[in-house]
UniProtKB/TrEMBL annotation:
Domain L-asparaginase N-terminal: start-end pairs: 42-233
Binding residues annotated for substrate, in chain numbering: 97, 130-131
Top-level lineage group: Bacteria
Family matches, as PROSITE patterns: ASN_GLN_ASE_1, ASN_GLN_ASE_2, ASN_GLN_ASE_3
Molecular function (Gene Ontology), one example: asparaginase activity
Protein's organism: Salibacterium salarium
A Pfam family per the record: Asparaginase
Active site: residue positions: 50 (o-isoaspartyl threonine intermediate), 50, 130
Protein name (Swiss-Prot/TrEMBL): asparaginase
Gene3D superfamilies attached to this UniProt entry: 3.40.50.40, L-asparaginase, N-terminal domain (3.40.50.1170)
SUPFAM superfamilies, per database record: Glutaminase/Asparaginase
Catalytic reaction equation(s): L-asparagine + H2O = L-aspartate + NH4(+)
The entry's keywords: Hydrolase, Signal
Amino acid sequence: MKWTKKVLTFLLVVGFVTPVSLSGVTAEESSETEAKEDLPDVSILATGGTIAGSAEENTDTTGYDAGSLAVQTLIDAVPEMEEIADVSGEQIANVGSPNVTNDTLLKLGKRINELFDSGEADGVVVTHGTDTLEETAYFLNLVVDSDKPVIVVGAMRPATAMSADGPMNLYNSVLLAGHEKSKGQGVLVSLNDRIGAARYITKTNTTVMDTFKSQEQGYLGAIIGGTPYFYNEVTRKHTSETAFDISELDSLPQVDIIYGYQNDTSYMYEAAVENDAEGIVVAGSGNGSMSSVSAEAASEATEEGVHVVRSSRVGSGTVSQRDGLTSDSLNPQKARILLMLALTETDDADVIQSYYNQY
Ligand code: SIN
């Protein structure tokens, strides 16, 4: 019998034969493989945090160990990611984010550049504790030398909690990491269905889920029903446009943050100088203002060769430029990240200020 196309189609439709090709692979299997090949390669680099946290009770949302679950456990919990990306995981660290160090930052930045340079990844997701997430996100925003998407994600509820937010945040981040529209936007932060820019976003509340905000500049967009919608763009330079190259670095210069308050003292500045800090970021009051005592201590530190940058403890707004270095609208913790990187490139205060104006 000659198996004409018509007969084969009929038998397939009535279910008498299964669609087996000459190689023994079913049509279903081969179309699944083709679909998989079309999916973006997304690497998940895990560092710990509440997203990898587990508690004894599912009602416990505060007393738990951040950074106790391994990356594969996070991936296995969201099998739906297989439909949108070819996902792989790596454990960079597994700590609460206050324990993320400069070494972790360098390891992460170098690994991301390697994954992009080698073509192994089309996008990267970094899982991270929320407490210092914005610092890592801004660091990566300045050192990833690619327009490919990098998304930094966390969760406010541990993985064991009722209504844990980690799985959906992770799914959304993988979606963003593989999405055309995320390219060239700088490093993104995604929690709670929002898309934020590493440059602008900050944690604003100690415990609630809707904690990451971009008060002045707004979010870049949102993810609605599995589709990312972008409404804003970052106007500051980032990723492949920046001056910073970490490929040959084994460490970053020590930069400390000193808080300004009534009746503050000079000995924090003296301690920073004695301990070889190369930079100090002042979290000043209001528009970066400082008491006479701290201004005097800061100018003595400057005479010792320490670069002092004024920022504000207020949480939003730009510190206006006057004498000395100012952080533009970067909060103290992000101003520290930029100063560390700036000092790997230059000792010239004018150049450092130009970085604050550009990035
Ligand atoms: C942390 O930052 O590691 C703990 C808090 C969190 O992830 O929400």
